[in-house]
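REQUEST ID: PR-0412
SUBMITTED BY: lab tech R.K.
PRIORITY: routine
TASK: structure prediction, single protein chain
INPUT:
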Amino acid sequence: MHLFLNSRIWLFTYVFWNIVTFFLIMLDKKRARQQYWRIRERTLFLCALFFGATGILIGMYMFRHKTRHWSFIIGIPFLLIINATCCYFIYRWGGALSQ
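STATUS: complete
OUTPUT:
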């Protein structure tokens, strides 16, 4: 039961954070069109590194933003693979602790 609760918390946090990163891409695209202050690429990559790559990747292609930058075309899917690997090991490690 304890592991199930932790899994639900992790899943909620993961989904919430990816929604936030999705909206960051939307906001950056909006500001790019209006020629306002922009979100740094480093900030977007850090958000992707800390389990937000899914939201950024979906936002990139939904809003057609940063899709011509090779650092994003290669980097964000790479970070998504790292995120998935880390999630797997967190899940496995949590399961080992509960037994």
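NOTES: The first helix runs from residue 2 to 34.
REVIEWED BY: pending
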